[in-house]
Amino acid sequence: MKLTQRDVDRLKGVHPDLVKLVQAVSDMLLGPMTFMVIEGLRTAERQRELVKAGKSQTQNSRHLTGHAVDLGVLIDGKLTWDFKVYKTLADIVKAHAARLGAPIVWGGDWKTLKDGPHFELDRKVYP
């Protein structure tokens, strides 16, 4: 799968290591499962809107600094919100992150507000 121009545009302002990771994963995905970039860098205003809507719990999101992306899983070209599918994508992303030396945190591993589409560079390495 190749990233679309829309995906590339949504990666503008995202940390180069995270962009490389997203590109690497997209280059290896074949078959019925692909993904789209839902969102990368966010404005403070957008973050406030998401908190107000209950879709985020913090004004300190890694999206504000370009250290996070949300990836939407597509099955046969259709967006799905099935958490099991996001777990599969997360396993692939984590494996590639380890190979690239760019540790990440997956929102699906959080204890509260599990966020399957969310991937961020680990704060311990990328403050």
UniProtKB/TrEMBL annotation:
**Which SUPFAM superfamilies does the record associate with it?**
Hedgehog/DD-peptidase
Q: Which InterPro entries does the annotation name?
A: Peptidase_M15C, Zn_M74/Hedgehog-like
> Which Gene Ontology MF annotations are present?
peptidase activity
Task: Spell out the CDD domains in the cross-references.
Answer: L-Ala-D-Glu_peptidase_like (cd14845)
Q: Which domain of life is it from?
A: Bacteria
Q: Which residues cross the membrane?
A: none
What is the protein's given name? Peptidase M15
Gene3D superfamilies under this entry?
Answer: 3.30.1380.10
Pfam families, alphabetized: Peptidase_M15_4
Q: Where is the Peptidase M15C domain?
A: 56-121
